[in-house]
Structure formats: C-alpha cells, structure tokens
Design goal:
Structural class: mainly alpha
Organism: Felis catus
Number of strands: 2
Largest sheet: 2 strands, antiparallel
Keywords: Membrane, Transmembrane, Transmembrane helix
Subcellular location: Membrane
Distance between the termini: 69 Å
Order of helices and strands: HHHHHHHEE
Main location: membrane
Membrane topology: Multi-pass membrane protein
Amino acid sequence: MADSERLSAPGCWAACTNFSRTRKGILLLAEIIFCLVILICFSASTPGYSSLSVVEMILATIFFVIYMCDLHTKIQIINWPWSDFFRTLIAAILYLITSIVVLVERGNASKIIAGVLGLIVSCLFGYDAYITFPLRQQRHTAAPTDPADGPYPKGDTCSAWTMDPLKPQNEGGGSLRFEILGPRL
C-alpha cells in the first residue's frame, strides 16, 4: 500500500506540472487566481456579488482537475470542449455585466478594484472561450490533387467512353465509342 502511494504521488505531481505549463492550464490557473482575488475584494465591500466568483472558481477548478488527470478522454459521455466553451462564454458575459454594474454604482476602493479586475477576467474568459471553440479546432483536410491518386488509371494518355451525338442509336454500329482524349495533365 505504501509503495503504490509513493509511486502514484510523483506521477500525479508530474501530470499537474505538465498540464499547468500548457496554454489551457495557464488560463485555468489564471481564472482560478483572478476569481479568488475578486472574491476577496467583493467580500470586503459587497458580499452580494461574490457568488459569481465562487461558482466560476469552483467550475474552473473542476475543469483544471479533469484536464490535468486526463479524465476528458476517459469520460466520453460529456462533450468536454462544448461544456468548457459554454462555461467560459457564460462567465465572460456575466463578469462583464457584473463589472459594469459595480463600476457604475461607485463604491469603496475594494469594490472598484473588483470591478476593474472583473473586466480583465471577462477578457480572460472571452479569450478562453475563443481558443476552446470546438468548431475552430476542426481542421479541413484537402482532397488529393495528385493525378496518381485520382480515379483514372496511370498512364500517359487519358481515355474515355463517349457518346457520338451525330450518329443515332437505332442505326447500325451504335453510338457509343471509345476514344483517346490526349495527354493527361
């Protein structure tokens, strides 16, 4: 039991440090830290606005743990990119609205600081929503353009069966003919 705990702890720490160095990990850590600072500022001035910071900090922590432990590949019943996109989009909109309301009300210094930090974190959540937008991440693969990959056989010339519009079908000889069209480009 002690050996398995000892072996799993460095692996967990390595996974945490490796994920926290990625762009998504840095964004989630920044979101958690900003939400904590805004929570402290709102708690010092107006506790009514602090619920947004608490909810977003908890959600950012949950997504950080899910991505850090690679659970998004193991739990496939949930579409994680869309869930993360909607979380960040809604957070950006709510922080923008809350910050504007707080700055318009004009309160003490901690309330103004929370409003300004709310505008900054709104941009941070908006950028996170932009980079996690699932349709932006899908890459289009072009169709093969090499003639060797096409439906025609390899060779110097291209041939095809064509219809002869000048010769009616009911006359002897038929109207379908095979001709060599020329070099393949």
